[in-house]
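Quarterly update, task 2.4: coenzyme A-bound model.
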Amino acid sequence: MGNYCYKTESQPLIPYRYTWTGLLSPTEIRQITPLYASAFKWPTARSSQYFSRCTTYVTGVLEWLIVYDQKKVVAFLSLHEHPDGILLANVVTIPSYRGRGIATEMLRKTRDRVHGERLYLQVLAEQPILVDFYSRRGFRLLPTLTSSGRYQMVQE
Ligand SMILES: CC(C)(COP(=O)(O)OP(=O)(O)OC[C@H]1O[C@@H](n2cnc3c(N)ncnc32)[C@H](O)[C@@H]1OP(=O)(O)O)[C@@H](O)C(=O)NCCC(=O)NCCS
């Protein structure tokens, strides 16, 4: 029975906690920095630099959604200003928690959070699997790539 917390992998007895925050705490930054570096294959130093700025006000970052399994951060995403709505970015679930519907639930909670605003996101051109993942969750691919070679997707 391994972990007493779980009935099955997809039905935690103690549910994951989804929390919104405008500013990451130092503890959250300490946990998120290496997770981010590993998910996006950034050097940890660059990731630390990025997140150290998140303790203070960062132009364009509106909110973070952090998912906890008890005290452990297991997933997160961020919302940013966008000229035509809100940009969704930094969507990560840590590898051992993938496939449990956590990112799907984060997208659902984001939808509720933005009160009908258009949601945009960008996906690297070499990751068509992600385009499929977001298409199945109501996002539509826009016809032109961004200047940095990313697909842009929108959910209206
Ligand atoms: C993309 C990502 C956020 C999905 O998170 P998740 O919590 O596993 O998502 P869900 O459980 O809601 O859905 C999992 C999807 O991956 C597939 N999947 C199932 N088991 C999986 C597993 N063990 N590992 C990875 N993917 C799995 C499922 O097929 C499902 O897609 P489908 O339902 O459309 O078929 C996660 O894989 C990740 O962090 N990837 C690395 C960072 C990244 O590329 N982020 C996107 C930036 S735009």
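Highlight for this quarter: The two ends are 43 Å apart (CA to CA).
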